[in-house]
Amino acid sequence: MLPALSLFLYTHRRMAITGDDVSLDQIVPVSRDFTLEEVSPDGELYILGSDVTVQLDTAELSLLFQLPFGSHTRTFLQEVARACPGFVPAIPDPEFLWLSRYRCTEPEPEPPTPRSWNSAPGTWPGRARIGGGGSSSDELRPNGKGLPVDQSSWGQNKPENSLSRQNKSKSEISNMVRSSTITVSDKAHILSMQKFGLRDTIVKSHLIQKEEDYTYIQNFRFFVGTYNVNGQSPKECLRPWLSHDTQAPDVYCVGFQELDLSKEAFFFHDTPKEEEWFKAVSEGLHPDAKYAKVKLIRLVGIMLLLYVKQEHAAYISEVEAETVGTGIMGRMGNKGGVAIRFRFHNTSICVVNSHLAAHTEEYERRNQDYKDICSRMQFCQVDPSLPPLTISKHDVILWLGDLNYRIEDPDVEKVKKLIEEKAFQTLYAYDQLRAQVAAKAVFEGFSEGELTFQPTYKYDTGSDDWDTSEKCRAPAWCDRVLWKGKNITQLSYQSHMALKTSDHKPVSSVFDIGVRVINEELYRKTLEEIVRSLDKMENANIPSVSLSKREFCFQNVKYMHLQVESFTIRNGQVPCQFEFISKPNEESYCKQWLRASPSRGFLLPDSSVEIELELFVNKTTATKLNSGEDKIEDILVLHLDRGKDYFLSVSGNYMPSCFGSPIHTLCYMKEPILDLPLETIRELTLMRLQTEDNGSQLEKPMDIPKELWILVDYLYRNAIQQEDLFQQPGLRSEFDHIRDCLDTGTIDNLSASNHSVAEALLLFLESLPEPVICFSAYRNCLECSGNLTASKQVITTLPACHRNVFTYLMAFLQELLKNSAKNHLDDNILASIFGSLLLRNPAGHQKLEMAEKKKAQEFVHQFLTHPEPLSLLSYSA
User: Fold this and answer.
1) Which of 37, 94, 363, 726 is 20 to 30 A from 830, alpha carbon to alpha carbon?
2) pLDDT of residue 700
3) Tens digit of pLDDT for each residue in 405-437?
4) For residue 867, what is the enclosing H or E element?
């Protein structure tokens, strides 16, 4: 592909190429990067989404191929014009000679544009990417409260079809969404604005401070809807839910939960239900307006759709979408949240759709899910030098979903009687969400409208009758809409009984939301004033800051337990940009177990920022800390742009743990790990796997690690019939307790829920530096999956301790399957969960590709369906 060119579209017919001397007269406020692929051989340029075709003359075509693409020699005034749509033709170009010094003098890559749609690499220019966000790294980072997350392994990340224009007619493109002549994503580079490094950051900071000088509040109508569809396909028109109001909304935020309950969707994230419900929603939008889809994001069965009216498309920018799974091990996507954030005019908005933990007694788990979503949901900013945005960093937050909070009153008949009497306020006194919000455990600062409709769960599918199944679930207001922010007025909050597809009823809330709209003339004047004032500053001034603290000591650091220390950077009289930088010959500014948040930023004169140093030891870093190859010691270098460096020292001590220790090491540890001298732990951890059976002076090892035996024995005695075992997360505080019991040997004190112990077992297996099936046998296992005889032969080649652990785990899983009528587990579920833990890709410990993941599942599956005469009693610790 040839380099992109930034072009300005002249009114009706002309195209000018931005350069130093381009005139700003009669420029229509439509600019974006065009590629030469969009110019036909005869010089016709079709502008996607605008129904405009521009004919370039010979000179312009020639100039297209002659421009110095990387020079970026636009003046600052031209960039002001790019940022100010509606430039009045009658006003002559002002001659700001003082702006000449702000020309970019060195070539630099074209950065993402602050007021543009975000395009995914490899997609056609301007096409938004559909799919979940999440880190592409396998590194586990703290979620702010405890358990780590590896979102990317469970998130949906599926791009939209990115066919070239040659393969799509204009009508096909314009009909992508019902009755829409454009798609929002086609506005990919509207109102783009060149960056100017530190000075640009200063300008933006001052613009934020002076926002009220150039904006005014305008109300827009938002529709927010949530629907748990219980794995069903759409069977009825959605207009009674989506179009019940006479006035067409300006913005639609539509969320679904339990889109697909199949195992394929749960483990492999692929489902035809996404397209079915997307089509149903598109056909159910208000008939009196034309809408364009902004974004679709899905995590297993949690899906969120964002639409806007066609005329608002140009004013939507900075679109990002992310997912957070809060299921087992803090990452499975059967529970969690998805979110879309965007800027509408000059107001930042975040829409969150969540499905929290089920069951009446699990309100603490729901609280934890909420906190996890808040702390782990992070959106990349257009400016890569800025830290990620969290949900709370938005002007308006709309939170919808199946929050699963129940009604506490145990008397189901009493609840139904109050509903029949429409005594909703009396019933609301028993609502768990009300109680948790009042206790400031969740949704602090959020508002919810009065509940004037009957509970939306649980009904017999296809009817308005309460649940008549064996479980006879009590009615509850599971499906809710909350909001946070200024200038928000709720106009309606209701359920929609007409829809009977699911065991839930859909809920909607309509808002008038005051959005800050830019007055372009005032914006331009404000911008000019800011740049003029900056011009008066002496460039010779050197920034200087003071730090409230430079030495940090983290005491008794434990596996997967977050510790945080903070300090304040206070700036002097010169604006400055700060960043933690790498030391010589090091790739990162800190060790893997440490993170500074934010790690970079900008400070105006006399301002300050609090920096948090987060220390979190996970599976990646625990082994070297156990062995003493690494220590809780580091030096951070805080660098000021055009200023000096500051040095911060980090120290502490790590409490060795069975988590992150090799299997053969644990087999030789007959005492709890915290009862052993550090030198003994070091020697055993560094001992090569091959030496375990070499007849050395070491005592004969145990058959399996005692810690593994403790966990499995607990589950065997207490959870063999536990429903949803290995599928429902435990509590974070209980994991800390389980870890401490294993590391100190105080197993008599082990008291935790079955789900917490099951999750601890999975985390133990995940933390093994060498998986149960050794890296050296990985390829052989995949090649012989489906061949039981060959697979057994591979297992016999494993070192004795690894072979024993594999056999022991298979025996335990077979016992679980014998009780499947009670625990509802099946061989496919267990093979999927344990396949990716027992077999791991040796290439950099990467996550398994989908094909490899299925082969790993098949390898484990055959041992579950062809059990050997094994006994859990044949192995001892």
Assistant:
1) 363
2) 87
3) 999 977 899 999 999 999 999 999 999 999 999
4) none
What is the per-residue pLDDT across 597-628, written as a single tens digit (0 to 9) for each? 999 988 988 999 999 999 999 999 999 999 99
Whole-angstrom CA distances from 624 to 310, 488, 588, 659, 691 are: 56, 52, 18, 12, 19
Buried b (16+ CB within 10 A) or exposed e, 523-560: bbebbbebbeeeeeeeeeeebebeeeeeebebeebbbb
Q: Do residue 624 and residue 741 come from a single domain? A: no
Q: How far apart (Å, rounded) are the C-alpha atoms in residues 635 and 651?
A: 9
Residue 810 and residue 720 in one domain: yes
511 and 576, same domain (yes or no) = no
Any idea which residue has 């591979």 for tokens?
794
The tokens for 707 are 């810690």
Print the domain residue range for 508.
Answer: 213-404+485-520
- Mean pLDDT of all residues in 462-478: 91
104 in any annotated domain: no
Q: How far apart are CA 875 and CA 859, in angstroms?
A: 23
Residue with tokens 């604005």: 193
82 pLDDT above the threshold of 60: no
Compute the distance between CA of residue 510 and CA of residue 222 in angstroms, rounded to an integer.
Answer: 6
Of 631, 654, 677, which residue sits at a domain end? 654
Q: Which residues of 394-404 are buried (b: 16+ CB within 10 A; e: fewer)?
A: bbbbbbbbbbb
Number of domains in the chain: 4
Q: Is 441 exposed, middle or buried (0-12, 13-18, 19+ CB in 10 A)?
A: middle
| Whether residue 552 sits in one domain with residue 509 | no
Alpha-carbon span 11 to 24, nearest angstrom: 11
The enclosing domain of 857 has a CATH number of 1.10.555.10
Element (DSSP H or E) covering residue 848: none
CATH of the domain at 32: 2.30.29.110
Going by C-alpha positions, the residue among 567, 223, 275 that lies closest to residue 398 is: 223
Q: Is 679 left (phi over 0), alpha (psi -120 to 50) or beta?
A: alpha
**Does residue 833 sit in the same domain as residue 710?**
yes
The CA-to-CA distance between both ends of the chain, in Å, stands at 62
Task: Specify the pTM.
Answer: 0.70
pLDDT tens for 754-781 read 999 999 999 999 999 999 999 999 999 9
Q: Which two tokens stand for residue 583?
A: 């030391």
